[in-house]
Amino acid sequence: MRGRVLRGLVELLRDGPSGRRLTLHAFVLACARADSRLLLRWHAEAASTGPTEDARWLSLLWQTALGDLRYTADALKALAGWVLEADGDPQAERELAMLLPTLVGSDEDRKRLDHMLGTLRDRRGGGPPAVAHRLMAVL
Questions:
Q1: I need a surface site. Which of 17, 24, 38, 117 has the fewest CB within 10 A?
Q2: pLDDT in tens, 61-103
Q3: Is the pLDDT of residue 34 over 70?
């Protein structure tokens, strides 16, 4: 069932500007608000069995959202929320360590993610949490 939903999102993404906007808005919203790390866990499950269609499509949606100026900030905010959750949650850190390298298709992508991780503030307003530094290493 999840694969069909994902396939539908990717088809809608490719269905012109209005389909693209609808898909990216829904995807970023789901990443930021749905059952905490639902989409992160989905990617980890799909990627843990090797390169799968679901893992590739989830990465494509992320790359597209991060590369579209209308959605970059919200996508980075969703990722930052997951990084903060991963501080003290080894499972979430492993899931992010699987996802983040798939989001780097160019030097610009790497710089964008490095900047997000390097400027992230822990929940007490201090510097980046230790998990952010470890995730920078996987990029």
A1: 17
A2: 999 999 999 999 999 999 999 999 999 999 999 999 999 999 9
A3: no
